[in-house]
Design brief:
With 353 residues, the chain is α/β, with parallel strands linked by helices. Helix content is 31%, strand content 16%.
């Protein structure tokens, strides 16, 4: 098959890295890479050419490609260049009306089921893990103090305190990273099942006094009573924190507001908030998308896509997820050419058009 990797318009990542491109070539596929597709992630065109891929200006090869890979939905290219009947493997933002009009088959990897079998293809987990790590590094960089306990001849510097809100993949990686840097870490999650995971990493789990219990892979909307209890507990904890990293999101909904503007004055002067939920509205009421602001002495990072500042490794993980999914899809297509009739939970979950 002819395979094509597009250059992302508003993202520094690339869907296929040179090492994965080589795997596609070794399988006998024609691999086309849009010129400069990997440059912003640290993968020049020469690295793709070295493994047997062809660098394309996108005008001809894309029109004849059978499978297109992208991190984000390439709307302009779909409108003007992608051939009808092609397969698009992407991660988010698919315009289903346009895809149906163009007669495309679209797999959206952000809909990957959270199962053991699917973990090698789970782009949300691989990308969230790096996001959690980078959030800690960025916050430590702008914090006006050191993170670890330091004993010097001039006196002892106490360890900084880090609060992670949301103990999903990103949150757990943030906890682990902050612990490695020597901070005192605590975490909060509405799911009671997260307590064991948080404590296994050496962090303190912040519990809310409520009879309402919630479990499952994803967080869900809580009751008003629980929200009030949660807010009160946070008001007790926030004054002692140096860094707060928020990762709380609800699939298909706007991110919940957890840190209200009137909570900022009770925080330490110089404290840092990194809002990883900015793209879906933000967990901090004062967050400004795409900007770092200071309000009431607190610095707030409204990072829309933190992976843009760590695109090399983010692309490497994403590409491995893509290849694992492509291998599964190819094997299933040999058994059943009609994709809509494939009886596979992963294929069914990700097939959006």
């Amino acid at each position: 098959m002819n395979l094509f990797v597009v250059a992302e318009e508003f993202d520094n990542r690339v869907a296929v890295t040179p090492d994965i491109a080589k795997k596609f070539v070794d399988l006998g596929h024609e691999m086309f890479i849009e010129a400069g597709a990997g440059a912003k992630a640290g993968f020049p065109d020469t690295e793709y050419e070295r493994v047997g891929a062809t660098i394309s200006n996108c005008s001809d090869e894309l029109k004849f490609s059978d499978v297109i890979f992208s991190v984000n939905f390439p709307k302009t290219k779909v409108e003007k260049q992608v051939k009808p009947g092609a397969i698009l493997i992407t991660s988010q933002g698919a315009d289903l009306t346009l895809c149906k009009k163009k007669n495309l088959t679209v797999f959206s990897l952000d809909r990957m089921p959270r199962t053991t079998r699917a973990q090698y293809m789970d782009v949300l987990s691989s990308q969230a893990s790096l996001a959690g790590y980078k959030a800690v590094i960025e916050s430590a960089h702008i914090l006006n103090r050191a993170l670890p306990l330091m004993m010097t001849t001039a006196g002892t510097i106490p360890a900084a305190k880090v609060l992670v809100i949301g103990a999903g993949v990103a949150g757990l990686q943030a906890i682990a990273t902050a612990k490695r840097l020597g901070a005192i870490v605590s975490a909060f999650d509405v799911r009671t099942s997260a307590k064991e995971q948080v404590e296994s990493l050496g962090a303190k789990f912040i519990e809310v006094a409520s009879s309402e219990k919630m479990d499952g892979v994803y967080a869900k909307e809580t009751s008003d009573n629980y929200k009030k209890a949660q807010e009160q507990r946070l008001r007790e904890v926030l004054p002692s924190q140096d860094i707060v990293i928020t990762t709380a999101q609800i699939p298909g909904k706007k991110a919940p507001i957890i840190i209200k503007e009137d909570m900022l004055p009770i925080m330490k002067t110089g404290a840092v908030i990194v809002d990883l939920a900015t793209k879906t509205g933000g967990n901090c009421e004062a967050t400004k998308p795409g900007k770092t602001i200071e309000k009431d002495g607190v610095k707030i990072l409204g990072v829309i896509n933190i992976l843009d500042i760590i695109p090399y490794d983010a692309s490497r993980l994403f590409a491995k997820n893509v290849f694992a999914f492509f291998e599964l899809l190819s094997s299933k297509m040999k058994e059943q050419p009609d994709l809509a009739k494939i009886e596979d939970d992963i294929i069914k979950a990700t097939l959006v058009c």
